[in-house]
């Protein structure tokens, strides 16, 4: 009964130290392994699993204690930029696929061709960024290739944010359009690349076939797949053919899925989890876990937390487009109290687009200073000064139209300030935060309705849309129980806040901000990121919320060999039993 909340099954401690049982966050059921991200499959755990099977060209992580290029788990060994910053030549290591075939430039070109031809279906795509920034792929030899750029770019951004997205894939196995089809060079024609893409993505939707489908057996990473249950349990087994620098230390990793954090804590107490977590509110009972042979560590993230607005929602989109309305909403969020009380001090306020939990040269003074301090009275006045009146506890637009003293363009008379959110389930802290926000918004005169769903459902139901789309009924979305967005090493916002950005769920668009984002990717001046930080702290593209630790980890004594990655990926190959 105690373990009934675990959807993936629980293994007893192995004793032989050949296994590790790792608890995935509550309701974060893995649902994708294909090394090409698509909408609805963006949860961080999917990426972590995929990367231990198919290593990135250039792996950036914080597993060594600071964010940097992890060459042990990268397929590339070197990247030489041209003097004019308009191209880069990559050197591949002397590596092999698990079937013995060498990893070559052709495998990188295969990924490049598929993504270039199908970029609008790639979740990481933002117009004007990868793959648009790469004008040509030139093979030098089997272990060297050159990417030409459409202009000069900031090297730091290109390396950490763009090149790190490249995932070499086994062209000699995957370049086909059906299970019985012959492998050829289909990807080198537009029509062929589309057909191969469709084949791979369709195969990726068959989760119950992952472990048995021969397609997924050819890997480059330190692990291969033993089992993958639709209920959430994933078993990884050591790739005995691995020849990279980041080999596995433990033969089998069992990834366990839970419906609630409470169910996972019960598993910790039963001793069936080696690496798990507790709620921030349970830090006061830390000793009950250390007495069982665990140690407790906070896992902080290079991230921001927010609720995106749907600016195209037919009911509230026009209201959300008014800056004063977004200011009033933000002023109704008491981030400092939420971070201190609900998260037991394991969260930090977020006032803009740059992570604030760690010191960096990217954070502007304006963002750090909190442009819109909490004040329900100021928020109410802001609304009444713009044509809203309080009626039966809810603000109603009584002076429609544009101009001073009016509600704003597109906001009709009689519009009630009523917002609804689809929020991630399975987190006590998130549920409590939503309730606290509901009470605070009510003080301002804003109705706030809450509906919950598992995180994968939230992500799939709250994507980009046009106003007349049936799927555009969502208004606000929250999927940030462990942080909404974990950045690459360079925290530019091209995917999140640029017009048409691949993860710009609410369709925020501001031409001036687009120019600032463009500067962050092309200019080497530190002012580029500072100006961007200031602008979005002031323009409020989303509702900024406290950024929690990724998790408060509970780790069995004797399990070590790694640092918890601030980019929120987990790295099973680095885990080791030290005693």
From TrEMBL:
The keyword Transmembrane does not apply. Transmembrane segments: none annotated. The keyword Cell inner membrane does not apply. It comes from the Bacteria. It holds the Pfam family SBP_bac_5. It is found in: Cell envelope. Belongs to the bacterial solute-binding protein 5 family. PANTHER family: PERIPLASMIC BINDING COMPONENT OF ABC TRANSPORTER, PERIPLASMIC OLIGOPEPTIDE-BINDING PROTEIN-RELATED. This is Peptide-binding protein. It comes from Streptomyces hyderabadensis. The lineage of its organism: Bacteria, Bacillati, Actinomycetota, Actinomycetes, Kitasatosporales.
């Amino acid at each position: 009964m105690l373990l009934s909340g675990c959807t993936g099954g629980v293994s007893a401690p192995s004793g032989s130290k050949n296994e590790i049982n790792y608890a995935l966050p509550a309701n974060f059921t893995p649902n994708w392994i294909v090394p090409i991200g698509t909408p609805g499959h963006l949860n961080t755990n999917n990426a972590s699993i995929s990367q231990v099977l198919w290593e990135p060209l250039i792996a950036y992580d914080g597993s060594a204690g600071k964010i940097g290029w992890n060459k042990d788990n990268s397929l590339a060994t070197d990247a030489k930029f041209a003097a004019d910053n308009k191209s880069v030549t990559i050197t591949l290591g002397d590596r092999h696929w698990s079937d013995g075939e060498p990893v070559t430039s052709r495998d990188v070109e295969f990924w490049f061709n598929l993504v270039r031809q199908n970029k609008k279906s790639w979740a990481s795509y933002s117009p004007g960024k990868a793959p648009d920034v790469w004008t040509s792929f030139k093979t030098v030899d089997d272990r060297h290739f050159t990417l030409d750029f459409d202009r000069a770019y900031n090297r730091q951004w290109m390396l950490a944010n763009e090149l790190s997205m490249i995932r070499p894939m086994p062209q000699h196995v995957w370049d086909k359009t059906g299970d019985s089809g012959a492998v050829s060079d289909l990807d080198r024609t537009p029509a062929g690349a589309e057909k191969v893409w469709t084949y791979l993505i369709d195969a990726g939707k068959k989760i119950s076939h992952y472990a048995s489908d021969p397609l997924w057996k050819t890997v480059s990473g330190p692990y291969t797949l033993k089992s993958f249950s639709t209920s959430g349990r994933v078993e990884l087994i050591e790739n005995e053919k691995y020849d990279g620098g980041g080999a596995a230390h433990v033969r089998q990793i069992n990834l366990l899925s839970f419906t609630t954090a409470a169910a996972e804590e019960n598993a910790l107490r039963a001793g069936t989890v080696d690496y798990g977590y507790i709620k921030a509110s349970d830090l006061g009972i830390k000793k009950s876990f250390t007495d069982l042979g665990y140690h407790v560590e906070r896992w902080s993230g290079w991230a921001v937390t927010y609720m995106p607005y749907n600016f195209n929602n037919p009911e509230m989109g026009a209201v959300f487009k008014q800056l004063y309305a977004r200011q009033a909403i933000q002023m109704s969020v008491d981030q400092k109290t939420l971070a201190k009380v609900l998260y037991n001090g394991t969260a930090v306020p977020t006032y803009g687009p740059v992570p604030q939990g760690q010191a960096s040269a990217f954070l502007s003074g304006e963002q750090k200073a909190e442009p819109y301090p909490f004040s329900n009275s100021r928020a109410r006045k802001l609304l009444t000064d713009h044509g809203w009146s309080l009626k039966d506890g809810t603000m109603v637009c009584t002076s429609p139209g544009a101009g001073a003293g009016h509600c704003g363009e597109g906001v009709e008379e009689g519009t009630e300030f009523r917002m609804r959110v689809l929020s991630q389930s399975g987190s006590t802290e998130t549920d409590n935060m939503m309730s606290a926000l509901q009470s605070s918004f009510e003080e301002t005169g804003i109705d706030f309705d809450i509906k919950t769903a598992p995180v994968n459902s939230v992500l799939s139901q709250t994507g980009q849309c046009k106003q007349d789309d049936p799927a555009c009924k969502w208004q606000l979305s929250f999927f940030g129980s462990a942080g909404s967005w974990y950045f690459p090493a360079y925290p530019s916002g091209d995917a999140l806040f640029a017009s048409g950005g691949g993860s710009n769920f609410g369709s925020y668009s501001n031409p001036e901000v687009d120019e600032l984002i463009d500067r962050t990717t092309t200019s080497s001046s530190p002012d580029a990121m500072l100006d961007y930080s200031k602008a979005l702290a002031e323009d409020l593209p989303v509702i900024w919320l406290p950024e929690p630790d990724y998790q408060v980890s509970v780790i069995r004594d004797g399990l070590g060999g790694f640092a918890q990655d601030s980019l929120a990926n987990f790295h099973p190959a680095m885990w080791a039993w030290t005693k």
